[in-house]
Amino acid sequence: MGGVLGCLLTAWIIYNVLVVIGRLYLSPLSKIPGPRLAAATPWYETFVDLWYNNFPDALADMHKKYGPIVRPTPWEVSINDPDYYNEVYVTAGKRRTNYDAGSRSGLGMQDAIAITKDHDTHELRRKPVANFFSRPNVTRVESRISDEVRLLDAKLCRLKGTGSILSLDHAFTAYAGDIVVQFTCAEHPRLLDGPDFTPQWHKSICGDLNVVPLFRHIGWLSNLARFVPVGLLRALNPEVAGFRLFTLVGEGQIDKIKKGVAREDEKEGLEKKQSVFHDILRSDLPTSSLITYFVLADPEVKKRLEEELKDITAGFPEVVPRWAELEKLPYLQACIKEGLRINRFFRRNPRISPDPECWIGDYDPRMSRNFVPFTKGSRNCLGMNLGWAELYVCLAALFRPGGHNMSLAGTDESDIVPIFDGDVGAPKRGSKGFNVRFD
Ligand code: HEM
């Protein structure tokens, strides 16, 4: 018995040594610079990701040390060169893009559009919903966004003069959740209606983001979690349980929708009930918290934004300004662009230093070229139009003159900055949240 085990162990060691030699010397990527350990084993990325939660930072350090092209894992090449961006992120007309779900495949969402590997299958899944997320369709159903903004605003108005401190990130997550679920599942979860904007929803999303790195690297864990009853899972690890519950809800929704579609067959728009439930995780709006934070942190920015919004929001709440009108406002547009830009790139900056001014007037055209918060090409963000519309309408209501007397309440940059790579950026573990006082 001992002899058999010894043989197996020896064979396993020899196999792994050969694999590492292959990766280091025979792989087509063997000449790409980068740490040898990262080229030899994916456990390098796993360790940095799970232990320090900062693989994007480690990657930036690799680029600093080895140059614009590095090999961060045995199978990947990372290119840090804005001039090359449009060569990589292309539409199907230029090149078909297969996607290596790699570490994301452990999330147990193989059917989600975003992690569909094969180009043709991805196109097949994306095409029917693409129209649904198009600008004309989002504009057509914009009244749903207006209704949610009215509801959000009315609840905030009730806090006027009370000195109450509210976790505004809970409110934003509820707002985004209500809109996305309505849009994708044709159901209304009424998260904004709940007491304190249903904080459980925000907590569940944050808990899900926390377990993403674990499932990303140790894929069999998420498969295992599928067989464990949610109650037991909750006792063992509430965050994993939350993730499982979220997936179950998503699957339940999809089943319901499939049955609904089978019954109703062909109807237009929302009635078509296409679902991208798993993409709710992506659609949460850390950008709203970030923009609101930097506007509140700088009285000059706030004053200028309020002045610009004065006329267009004069009829609010009876008349909610339209997305198409709001995006013509240069300063509001600049604030949103700055939020999206910083949200994606600021994790290595010691302080948030947003400057909406940099988007006004004659600015360097390279800024527009490098502005890709939704990425480009055949796999760019499907919900981009919905994301823009949600941001414009919500921020206009929030910063209309005479609207809300808000100030930051014990929240600092470190509570907002997304430094945690849960597939979607999230603030540090233990963040106090985005707390705002209403006077
Ligand atoms: C400000 C808000 C948003 C931002 C900044 C954002 C950003 C992104 C980015 C960067 C990607 C590409 C991810 C990657 O390649 O790994 C993406 C993909 C995606 N996003 Fe968004 N997103 C936002 C809102 C939304 C919304 C509201 C939805 C839908 C309800 C959505 C649905 C999707 C989907 C389905 C994909 C995958 C597309 C594909 O693979 O074909 N996003 N998003």
TrEMBL record:
It comes from the Eukaryota. GO terms for molecular function: heme binding; iron ion binding; monooxygenase activity; oxidoreductase activity, acting on paired donors, with incorporation or reduction of molecular oxygen. InterPro entries: Cyt_P450, Cyt_P450_E_grp-I, Cyt_P450_sf, Cytochrome_P450_monoxygenase. Pfam families: p450 (PF00067). The chain crosses the membrane at residues 7-26. Keywords: Heme, Iron, Membrane, Metal-binding, Monooxygenase, Oxidoreductase, Transmembrane, Transmembrane helix. Its cofactor is heme. Belongs to the cytochrome P450 family. This is Cytochrome P450. The lineage of its organism: Eukaryota, Fungi, Dikarya, Ascomycota, Pezizomycotina.
